[in-house]
Amino acid sequence: MDSLADLNIPLSPGQALERLLLESWMVAGLALKLWSYLGLGWKWLVQVYRLVLYALFLLPGFLQMIYYYYTSPSVKRSVIYGRKPRQRLDLYVPKNAAAGELPVVIFVTGGAWTIGYKAWGALLGRRLCEAGVIVACLDYRNFPQGSALDMLEDVNTGIAWVLRKVQRYGGNPDQVWLVGQSAGGQLAMLALLSQAAQAATGQAVLGGAPLWHPSCLSGFVGVSGAYDLEGLAAHLHRRGLYKNLLDTIMSIDGQVAYELLSPLHAARNPPPNLAAFMPPVLLMHGTTDKSVPVASSLLLSDALTAAGVESSVQLLPGKTHTDLLLEDALGGGRDVLSDSILACITGREDVSDHPSMCPKLLVRLAGCVCPF
After folding, report:
1. Does residue 237 carry a catalytic annotation?
2. Is 78 known to be catalytic?
3. For residues 296 and 225, is the Cβ–Cβ distance under 8 A?
4. pLDDT confidence of 355, banded at 50, 70, 90?
């Protein structure tokens, strides 16, 4: 995989335009296929209408971020981390990165496993980058281009690439945090649990390929994560949002596999000594999240704690599913997500005017031995 370095070479304007047209055509085809799964039910149409209005409302902030994303010298877009479709990532590299030894955040974005894209992490990437943190925002295949196992493979491949390569960009491989939001929280946590289970048992685990060692991580931060897939399916059904789509995404060989793909189920059925290979975990969740019930984070934290893993939950009153990633950052007020991540990295609670509820995520830094 090291030979991938020669794939990250600048494209000519003609090559860039050709790639853009090919990818646009592919996305259009996948969108039509996805729409065929959703059907034309009125509740989905209402949700699409609300999404359009929401995007228009935030458009001024989005335009500023688009300008930053495409013009900032700190953003290295579409770095190739694997040979399969969409195995790309965006790197946000601070100006002082040449000095080396900067902390690193790997961010796995959400998007309901269907509309996830690496650029959704631009707000978080910019804020952390300006604070002296290297951020890698992973892209991964979405449904219907890829299955849940394909997405896990992409996430594992991206994490392994960052652990191997980030030092050349000025990052410290012994100070790497994994952050996952919504669907990305499910994928990132399941990847971590699978790798920890493999390290604990010495046996291959579903969703644990390619291999990387969980001792390389200093901590995990989950944001509005969908860790309880069975509970999420029931929640969607109650809202009339046709859980058949989730059934299809979370299938293996044509069979619905919520248990096998649910981080909650994995945490409730851990192998012996799992905790020895797990970093500390912080789960953040808004109390008014209507997309993923807050119980998802509470149940996972309880299961991790029962397995001996250091875990805590940060409940945020009045916050919705997207507040932490989008509205807080665009609104000009306190950016709770960035502040909490920075508090985890620095070990300080004075990164903002409010105390952080982050657990002690630095306790294992000195003892982290990365095999790469």
Report:
1. no
2. no
3. yes
4. very low
